[in-house]
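Here's what a typical entry looks like (GATOR2 complex protein WDR24):
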Amino acid sequence: MQKSQDSRDRGAEDLCTVSMRICQEGHANALALNKECNQIAVAGRSLLKVFAIYSDGFTEVCNMRGGKNQNLSYSSNDVAWSTLDSNILATAATNGVVSVWDLSRFGQKKQLHVYNEHERTAHTVAFDIHDPHILVSGSQDGTIKQFDVRNEKSSYTYYSNSESVRDVKFSPHTQYVISAVSENGTVQLWDLRKGDKSILQFTAHSGPIYTCDWHPTKNWLATGSRDKQIKIWNMDGKASLEHTIHTIAVVGRVKWRPDRIYHIASCALVVDYSIHVWDIRRPYIPFASFNDHTNVTTGIAWKGDNSQLLLSTSKDSTIYRHAFKDAVRPSSKANAQGASLGHRGDISFARKIKLTTTETVTHGSKINSFVRQRSSNHEDQFHLAQSDVCQFILKPSYIGYSLKEEITHLKEHECFIGCAKELILNGRKLVDICEHNANVTKKYGKHNATTLWNFVKVLYGSNEFGKHEIHRNSFSKQKSVQTLRRPAQITHAHEILQWDRNERNDNNNNDDMADTVVQLDMDSTVMGGVSTTSSKQNYPPFGSVILSETQILNEITFDNFDLLREGFIYVGPPDFSKMHSHQESALHHDVQAARPHLDLKAESKEASPPPNTPSVLKVNSAPAIPIWEPHQFVAESIMLQGDVGDVQTTISILIAMSETRKLLQIDDALVETWFQTYIDQLHRYQLWNEACKVMNLSWLRAVRELNQQSTSVHTNCGECGRSLAGSVGWYCQKCKSMQSSKCSVCGLIVRGLYAWCQGCSHGGHLEHIMDYFANHFKCPKCGHLCEYN
């Protein structure tokens, strides 16, 4: 507590943000502080200067690029200041040169040593915390070199087996141990006394790692990557992930905040110009942000043990000393209200509650003690607020699922794996596939997918949309939607609707007969569509039908409701437009009811008889009803599932629909993206068989050919660690030997299946390796912690 208070006292005298423009020709790539924290070194491609830090700004002390004879060795990517000697600096140049500078030298000749041993660009340099003479560097050539600044050549070279080493840091907890991060997403720990192999190696990110930093008090290592994540690793024993911070851009630098266990600062490599300070316990929103720079920040450093001052440089050619009191608090500006819609239709709503004076007085000592606690360490707390949560639940009759239904709450990856293994994609009829898959998705709680499978079953299960020709030459062989909907009491109505061709020919000669409207006897009863008042069947003229009042009421549906006018209902010639529609469903009724239908002609309304007249009306022409096709609706529903990340449902439905999916007209490029995303997810969960099945069922050539790509495994020599690419078999061109082809257990050359460790490059007979790792954990040849399962 005393240490933290002293730190705040030291920063209290300089609590203001100041800046300075440092270069007109270019920008800085890195910065470093001396051990007294009163000078700062700034390095760039056309810049290498030292500035003194004062309360009101910066003053230039030394410009090491002032001479005439300058070359690429002065173009710096990184700079480091010795932690024990304030006169010693080191820089890493773009041409691979590592330079050591002595500021105590007189004049412009301050270069003490020039190490030109890296074959490619040098990315980083770092001095040993415990030994002021030890310097290490990391390069694009995949090597780490150790230098003793008293000598003119490197002391040792460490091969990382990666394409590029981006950052190197000495551990403050273990002497001689360094951490190195690479562009292949791996982290390595090296003991400088044992240069043949790294003591620990693990994959930390899915993309290149650009920076790392050790925690000053805990054995934690922070890594920042192109995958826009900062990960905190516990390095006690085997590395374990403790925290993950999600940023909005590629992470370029990270620095732990002194005297604050859970605070870490970061800056982006592109896009984001701000510097963010994160509390690793709240990883989704920054604790504080500095928004002073107008271009990408390239270097950050805390001023020694002072947690209130942060130094930074940027591509805008400025250096800033930020006062923490001037930082923006994003959490205080965040929206304090939120709403969420559940799959059952329930809504959860959260809102902020403002504490009033009355509440403070009522709760007395409890509130007062809370306020005192907040004011004592205000700098270390997030924006504090009280909230209230309300939940609105629909009745079971509206949501389609019983509240008493037992639902197993599974994790998201368990639902994904279960659906991937149980979903049926082909081999059955579409109706059976949809019904089975709807039950599977309902079992795993994916109710949106369940609804979509049911839609596909109803809309495409009957193959109605495959019919493109409608035969119109026979009225008796076709049924309209109205005929399909008639109840059981008029099941034989088709006997009345069948017109005798001869009688029709006779009726054609009599116009009056063709215009006759047959009056219904409301008191008579019709059994099976045949009147009981007469034993002889009197067929009505063409365009008319005899129905009772009860049957007329039963005939009123959503489809023909618009045909009901002043007590009359149209039951004349069949409406051929409805023959294009699909089978009846509740969805079809709702859509048809919601569509605006064309009204009958005004002449028909004017010619309608009074209300108390016979209840049958003959209409010569039926209004055209537009045909509703569900293709666009289903396509938008599938694309919505893809937008929310459920590519499993989108791909499964498209595969199950087979040739019918062509009606949806979804862009092949979008479908290919869904395929690649789904296959990648299956690979991440090691569902190799399911992924292979999806590839084989794909109709896109680029997806089907994925099985034929990336089938080679790149191996390394077990002796020197060099890649065997381009070599014949297991022959190493550097070692001039075939030692890697021998079994690490029995020592004989392996013929047949070969088990190989990517970490240490040793292997052997599959049976020997299986037997050995049944009782051991380390490599039989080098002691590496091989992961075999």
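The longest helix spans residues 668-684.

More examples are in the samples folder.
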